[in-house]
Amino acid sequence: MSLFDHLSLVEDTRSHINQRHNLVDVLFLMLSVVASGQDGWAEIQQLGELKLEWLRKFRPFANGISRRHTITRILKAVGPEICSCAYSVGLTTSAPHLLNPSLQLMVKHLEVPLS
């Protein structure tokens, strides 16, 4: 399965009126930014806006980049599932202390247990 196949397995729990930004787009944005070493919600939005052209090579981002508060709400809603997805695609290890420090911060902020 591709990364996008895995990300599409994460259930979108938002109501249909709150789905302006595609969930897979937001998850891909978050993973891309964290993989680049950024560690905050504002950085996700800022880097997403700077790299939107590159991101659109992989996903449509039809409504552009979500605002940081929207990103936070979306990721908190799917926190446990995105961590499970991250495990399945090899983005984390079985030892949480070995995670990328940026991902550790995100997971801590989401209050998602890693074990």
- Residue share in helix: 55-70%
Describe the largest sheet. Answer: none
Order of helices and strands: HHHHHH
Overall average pLDDT:
77
Protein name: H repeat-associated protein N-terminal domain-containing protein
Domain H repeat-associated protein N-terminal: 5-81
InterPro entries: Transposase_11-like, YbfD_N
How would you describe this protein?
- The protein is mostly helical.
- The chain has one domain (3-110).
- The protein is 56% helix and 0% strand.
- The protein has 6 helices and no strands.
- It has helices spanning 3-8, 23-35, 41-50, 52-55, 68-88, 101-110.
- Helix 2 (23-35) crosses helix 3.
- The longest helix is centred in the C-terminal third of the chain and has 21 residues, at 68-88.
- The chain is globular and about 30 Å long.
- Mean pLDDT is 77; it is low at 111-115.
- Pfam families: DDE_Tnp_1_assoc (PF13808).
- Residues 5-81 form the H repeat-associated protein N-terminal domain.
- This is H repeat-associated protein N-terminal domain-containing protein.
